[in-house]
Amino acid sequence: MSKKYNSVMSEEFKFFAADYPDSPGVYLMKNGRGRIIYVGKAKRLRRRLASYFQKNTGHTPKTKALVAQVRSVDILLTGTEKEALLLESGLIKKHRPRYNVVLKDDKQYVLFKLDKRSEFPRLSMTRKVVRDGSVYFGPFTSSAAARTTLKLLGKVFPLRKCSDGAFRNRVRPCLYYDIHQCFAPCVRDVDSNMYMDQVHRVEMLLSGKSGELVGSLEKKMAQASAEMRFEQAAEYRDQIRAVKKTVEGQVAVIHDRRDRDVVGLAETDAGLGLGLLFIRQGRLLDQKHFFWPGLTLDEGPEVLESFLVQFYGAGRFIPPLIIAPHDVDNEVLAEVLADRRTDSVRVVVPHSTQEKKLLDIARSVARQAKEKKDTITARLQKVLRLVEEPLRIECIDASHLGGTDMRVGQVVFDAGRRDKAASRLYAFPELEGAADDYAALAAWTVRRVESGPPWPDLVLIDGGRGQISAVEKALSECVEPVDWELASIAKGPSRRAGELEDLIFRPGRKNPMPLKPGSAELLFLQMVRDTAHRFVIGRQRRARKKAVLNSELTSLPGIGPKTARTLWDCFESLDAMVEAGRGDIESLPGIGKKKAAQIHAALQGLKKARSS
Q1: For residue 414, what are the CA distances in angstroms to 333, 408, 411?
Q2: What does the pLDDT look like over 109-157, one tens digit per residue?
Q3: Cα-based torsion angle of the residue sequence 359, 211, 317, 350 in order, rounded to the nearest 10 degrees
Q4: Are 300 and 389 in contact (CB under 8 A)?
Q5: 88 in a domain, yes or no?
Q6: Last residue of a domain, one of 251, 280, 300
Q7: pLDDT above 70 (res 106)
Q8: Where in the sequence is the domain holding 49, given as residue range(s)?
Q9: CATH of the domain at 300
Q10: Which of 6, 23, 212, 323 is deepest in the core (most CB within 10 A)?
Q11: 366-376: per-residue pLDDT in tens?
Q12: What's the structural domain count of the chain?
């Protein structure tokens, strides 16, 4: 369990070693505005913090700039160094401090997932690794390229495409069966041995054994041709072409067939670049680079350790071997990575000549990394006259349906890209019938402050001066006032969303901000506003539709609210419930034979009523 110590905020921070314990934990350095500007961890907090504030310590320029801005330090005590490392990683991701190594592009990359637990496995795309017995292949930094490959494989290896829920409830073959891209094991009697032979071929291809697969297919094609089974020979021919097209962009870079990632660092005039190679079964599958301005190779060990913890997070594919440019003498880091992978992970420097060549390639990739100076967030900081670059933008839109069902939708854009997982819908039953957008925005402000960080760098409000004033007033009345940058976007004179003359307002200004019509900054803010509007309207309609369907369901004999919830949890739609068999309903938790028969009869009656 963590314990928190708070230092007193002052104009100039003075460090006293006796104020801090000499135990494991995490420290949070804050500037004069109370913002966290650096998060670090230490096995011995007192000694680590003392190293920052001792004179003549030979700090790097980055550390000197950091120390000059520190006005307070909070610490969180942990039981072990491992807990401190995990807590540090979570806090960096949450607060994105200015002086930390933060992965702005930390999205999960695309993987291929082969669910081998199923009687008829399915190949699909995913961005998250789940320890459920499935086999994963990748990663691919380009989702478009991954979709193209999946589409190509789907044409010549006719495995099922539908989800498990659709597979269980389907009553007739889908379109993929009609175009000969699926065996339709959902409704047809398919030979499992023949199906698993196709699965084995796909697995060989994605595992890097394309040479063996092509050789095997060529033999089968020749045999089928000799036996005058020309249609089957043509299928083998098409599979051979698909295999060759899939692997033609992959280069063999090492003789063994081990999975490994290679990390290289390179210093440029503008900062520090990091190159990452994804090598699977000895072939270079993909590559990626990252960049941090102002850093040097002197910070390389710190950058490397922070990168490994953040990049190889939970749910990401982690190879058993990571080649690094420096020795990572940190048993705790290896233990954390092994826990996330549920198997051992080795982080080592290159030993063989081939591994050293791979590291050189990773360094070449790192040298190509450059800072994106003309980002949309940097341009917004300039035109809106913000104190800091608005990396995290939260856009809110208040909506109601004729005075009822008052909602405030919140969407989040991180570094210019939407973070769908961070979207929220706030309901305010206490405002039912009020149709008061100002009250809803004020209530949202209170609840958003209560939810805590990560704080937005900019809150964009769908509305004009009145809406922005409502949020500003609510912020000032909070028990602990929060310093947020605010802006609102109002529809132009025509009152139509998306018009070029939409106006942007900021607190303390009577006139709108001077954004040029059609400028990239205004178009981006309009896109963010429209995204929030679609989100809240879509959620409202979905909730109302589900309420209507739920009312229709609970009106049937034998189906109360509890049974309805069980049905919704197991079936994707009311149509799927209607098409379900009695055995499917009987298998649901808490439903026996007698009740299943009653529910099935009621659903069949609903089906007849709908069709009549």
Answers
A1: 27, 20, 10
A2: 788 888 888 889 988 888 888 877 788 887 877 777 778 778 877 877 8
A3: -20
A4: no
A5: yes
A6: 251
A7: no
A8: 3-95
A9: 3.30.420.10
A10: 323
A11: 998 876 667 88
A12: 5
Does any domain span residue 403?
yes
Do residues 336 and 312 make contact, with C-beta atoms less than 8 angstroms apart? no
Do 381 and 518 have their domain in common?
Answer: yes
Looking at the domain assignment, is residue 496 inside a domain? Answer: yes
pLDDT at 241: 76
pLDDT at 559: 78
Q: Do 525 and 436 reside in the same domain of the chain? A: yes
Write phi, then psi, for 21 (nearest 5 degrees). Answer: -75, 155
* Mean pLDDT score across all residues of the chain: 83
Residue that is written with structure tokens 């809150």 in the block: 459
Q: Using alpha carbons, select from 604, 564, 605 the residue that is nearest to residue 580.
A: 604
Q: Residue 9 carries which DSSP code?
A: P
Which H helix or E strand runs over 562? helix 561-570
Residue type for 540, please?
Answer: Q
Let me know whether 81 and 63 are in one domain: yes
* Strand extents, DSSP E, 59-109: 72-77
The tens digit of pLDDT for each residue in 207-233 reads 766 666 677 778 888 888 888 888 888
- What CA–CA distances, in Å, run from 524 to 266, 393, 493, 527, 588? 33, 11, 19, 5, 47
Whether residue 524 is predicted with pLDDT greater than 90 in this model: the reply is yes
Helix (H) or strand (E) holding 530: helix 520-554
